[in-house]
Amino acid sequence: MNILETRDIVKQYAQHRALDGVSISIPRGTIFGLLGPNGAGKTSLIRIINQITGPDEGQVFFDGKPLHPNHIGRIGYLPEERGLYKKMKVGEQLLYLAQLKGLSERQAMDKLKIWFTKFDIKTWWTKNVEDLSKGMQQKIQFVATVLHEPDLIILDEPFSGFDPINANLIKDEILELRQKGSTVIFSTHRMESVEELCDHIALINRSRKVLDGPKKAIKEQFKTHTYRVEYQGSLDGLNPAFSLLSTKPLEDGFLRSDVRIPPDAAVNDLVRELIGHVAVRSFGENIPSMNDIFIQAVGEVPTT
Q: Half-sphere exposure of 221 toward its Cβ, with a 13 Å CA cutoff?
């Protein structure tokens, strides 16, 4: 069952149409990548889901019912523009934000003890937010986002400002949250994070959805039917049915070539053809990366 659906969402700002008939379905218990170049409409859609703004046309359904203000307590949102109270102490602020989400002070304290231990930040409780580094503030806001154990967690560029160690820490927490039953909408320009974390994706470009579905199925859709082979010898006599796309020498005296197979051929046909001509060291399919797919679908490199 889908935890969230948007149906034909339209959002207009003066002369700019930010969203033009966008429909997405987010399966429960998945990490859903919401992708697109800057200005594509991702933030407008996230704001509608969070009821910060409303759609001009279309509907949003949460857990099978029309989106309602009482659903806010079941959603956690980490915006790209972080927003903590700089003069407040960390512990005081987290208790306040947790109670806004419906937790009692005792419930919030119990949960905060767990997170402060997990993130090794026990000494931060009485620090002012403004005295923390950007990465430390990010950790605090992540805790604030997930503390009430929301059913749906929306993370907009959650790794910006983190060093690799803390980025991996947050990745592990995102995966654990999914394992415990939360659904995550993950908006980012970092395609390597999409490769690693996302189960499904939707790609928005120029206010319209241009790709949508399980990541594995989308990769299958963009397959080039090309294979990479490292070998010694010559492929000059290769059957012309197999297209030799490129060849370059490697430092150890081997060659590496990309070969495309025709639609009616099997991979084993190519393998038999290769071993009849050269000594093969390695062989593998060229699987398109999410970065490749983004560029092909949108026509530009994702910003980092």
A: 14
